[in-house]
């Protein structure tokens, strides 16, 4: 099969490309970074260098493909995240329609249907194609963005310097803390990008009669249980995940000079997780859990943590 993979050599796209190549597929990887071309070609795939904001480029790349894995990289430099996601989704729809692509696997998020700005799934309904919407849970790899903060660097005064990563981190004195307007004893499903890649690879080779939604997770636990696993791996077994109110989170984001519309969207995303609605949707779909446990990922995290 000729399969197009977007997302360059990212956390999901790299293992996905490796799997598809191993299966004997003809894989073309889209990347906006010319510096990634050599690595893409070394993996056995072909490189298509261009931007998903360029519909002419997308259309030309999609033509003749049996299947396309489509993802929109989140941008936290865009003042209006919802507007950005809708623009990129519309670019995909236009290009897929023009190219006549019949099998599409679209990366979404497990709170996408609960957050108005994030929900672009419906835009793909106009396509005459078989579409699977992937809704993965909270990524293990989000923890990487918190390494400096867990180490206690980069703080302003007593309060916090915030950096979005799908979770929020803060270290005060000798006590490690993860913070967000979800956390504490909230139960969350976490997921390994490798398990997501496995699920996407399966879906790309299928052609269901109707469009469908597939949730993907690796392990379910409370946020504090996750914090303990990560903390123990780096020698901070006291690591806690503190639950903030929506107002506290929004205030912190504004202090960090995050644009107002973007800040409101980020708070809404995490509030959906705290509400339990994301968990309810996940359980209603009864997905099979992946193989990679958080304790496995914590070993990789600890290596990166101590190396940095």
UniProtKB/TrEMBL annotation:
It comes from the Bacteria. Residues 7-122 form the NAD(P)-binding domain. InterPro entries: Ergot_Alk_Oxidoreductase, NAD(P)-bd_dom, NAD(P)-bd_dom_sf. It holds the Pfam family NAD_binding_10. SUPFAM superfamilies: NAD(P)-binding Rossmann-fold domains. This is NmrA family NAD(P)-binding protein. It comes from Mucilaginibacter gynuensis.
């Amino acid at each position: 099969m000729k399969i197009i993979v977007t997302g360059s050599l990212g956390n999901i796209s790299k293992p996905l490309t490796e799997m598809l190549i191993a299966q004997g597929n003809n894989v073309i990887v889209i990347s906006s970074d010319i510096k990634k071309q050599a690595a893409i070609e070394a993996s056995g795939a072909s490189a298509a260098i261009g931007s998903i904001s360029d519909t002419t480029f997308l259309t030309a790349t999609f033509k003749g493909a049996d299947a396309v894995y489509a993802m929109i990289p989140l941008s936290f430099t865009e003042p209006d995240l919802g507007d950005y996601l809708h623009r990129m989704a519309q670019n995909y729809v236009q290009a897929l329609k023009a190219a006549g692509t019949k099998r599409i696997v679209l990366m979404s998020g497990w709170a996408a249907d609960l957050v108005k700005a994030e929900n672009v799934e419906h835009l793909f309904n106009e396509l005459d194609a078989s579409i699977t919407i992937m809704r993965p849970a909270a990524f293990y790899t989000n923890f990487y963005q918190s390494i400096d903060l867990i180490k206690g660097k980069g703080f302003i005064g007593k309060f916090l310097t915030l950096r979005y990563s799908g979770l929020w981190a803060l270290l005060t004195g000798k006590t490690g803390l993860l913070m967000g307007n979800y956390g504490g004893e909230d139960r969350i499903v976490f997921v390994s990008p490798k398990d997501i890649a496995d699920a996407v690879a399966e879906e790309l080779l299928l052609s269901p009669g109707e469009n469908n939604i597939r949730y993907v997770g690796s392990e379910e636990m409370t946020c504090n249980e996750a914090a303990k696993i990560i903390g123990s791996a780096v020698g901070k077994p006291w690591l806690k995940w503190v639950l903030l109110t929506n107002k506290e989170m929004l205030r912190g984001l504004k202090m960090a000079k995050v644009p107002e519309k973007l800040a409101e969207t980020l708070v809404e995303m995490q509030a959906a997780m705290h509400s339990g609605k994301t968990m309810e949707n996940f359980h209603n779909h009864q997905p099979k859990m992946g193989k990679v446990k958080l304790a496995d990922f914590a070993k990789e995290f600890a290596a990166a943590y101590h190396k940095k």
